[in-house]
Amino acid sequence: MRALGAIGLALPATRMDDRFVTALVHSLAEPIIEAGSALVTRIVSDTAAEEHLYRHWSVVGGIDGVVLLDARRDDPRVALLGSLGFPLAAVVDAALEPGFPAVVVDFDAALTVLRTFLATRPARPAVYVSGPGDSAIRSLESGTVPDGVAPIAVVHAESPAQSLDAVEAAVASGPVTLVFDSDVWAAAALGAVRAGGLRVPEDVAIVSATNSALCQSTTPSITAIDRRGDAIGAQLGRRMLEAVAGDRATWEPAPEPFIAIGETA
After folding, report:
1. How many domains does the chain contain in total?
2. Rounded Cα–Cα distance for residues 173 and 8 (Å)
3. Same domain flag for 91 and 172
4. For the segment 75-109, what is each residue's pLDDT rounded down to a tens digit?
5. Has residue 1 been placed in a domain?
6. What is the residue range of 90's domain?
7. If residue 31 lies in a helix (H) or strand (E), which one and from where to where?
8. Does 202 lie in the same domain as 147?
9. How far is CA 37 from each of CA 41, 82, 169, 242, 255, rounded to the nearest angstrom?
10. Per-residue pLDDT tens for 162-189?
11. Residues 98, 123: one domain?
12. pLDDT at 1
């Protein structure tokens, strides 16, 4: 039996600062390394660069399977990898029925967890500050707001400076809950509102949509949504190894997200 080759993973440049992705990739590597293989990662700028990378791997060899972090409906990358002979495993949305090894994530669950948590807190407007790239809570703008549930306004920011501008505008109207895609932006907002003399969480509550060591180490600690990146990465690694071994269809659900209670909300 030949030795297991490496597993390939293309990382979109827009996701490099996403702590959820960082945790997922770290845990993804563990079962692969334990099996005697290696995880080869490459940063890609767009879909064309990603497809070029897969074709390159098929020519040079050494890659036995490919992981997709976000397979979509009718994703052309799935067909391309199949045509190149690569087994694959992917993270897919719960709305899809994958015909390949996958970890199925209910991305709406993070929003449900957030709304349920906010319902237990003092009633106040909530503003979601979304960064560039994929939002951590994808259905926030596209989904319907359930009856009796307060809406969450969405503000798009392309930079840390724009994020702080959004904070300044939001707090001007009175007590508010601020939710951030980025843990770094949440920490920056915490410093800014406290420097401005506002109380946290009495005047401004802060929630990060990504749990991290940063959220746990700030003073006060930041309340965050734990989207289970570590657990999903480990699941995905096992699915990938099983796909290389011949399993071409098995999928499993990801664990549910939860609120990591801190001191900011």
Report:
1. 2
2. 49
3. no
4. 999 999 999 999 999 999 988 888 899 999 998 89
5. no
6. 6-106+228-256
7. helix 19-34
8. yes
9. 13, 21, 50, 13, 26
10. 999 999 999 999 999 999 989 999 999 9
11. no
12. 39
Instruction: Give me the residue label for tokens 């109380």.
Output: 199
Between these two residues, 217 and 149, which has the higher pLDDT value?
217
Confirm whether 263 is domain-assigned: no
Q: Output the six-digit token pair for 136.
A: 């951590």
One-character DSSP codes across 171-212: HTTSSEEEEES-HHHHHHHHHHHHHTT--TTTTEEEEESS--
Do residues 215 and 240 share a domain? no
- In this predicted structure, the answer to whether residue 147 has a pLDDT above a threshold of 80 is no
Rounded to an integer, what distance in angstroms lies between the CA atom of residue 37 and that of residue 238? 12
Q: 230: closest CA among 215, 211, 214?
A: 211
- Give the pLDDT confidence score for residue 3 in this predicted structure: 56
CATH number at 158 reads 3.40.50.2300
Contact 129, 178 (CB under 8 A): yes
Residues 120 and 221 in one domain: yes
Structural contact between residues 176 and 118, judged by C-beta atoms closer than 8 angstroms? no
Q: DSSP 3-state assignment of 109?
A: helix
Does 249 lie in the same domain as 167? no
Peptide bond into 201 cis (omega under 30): yes
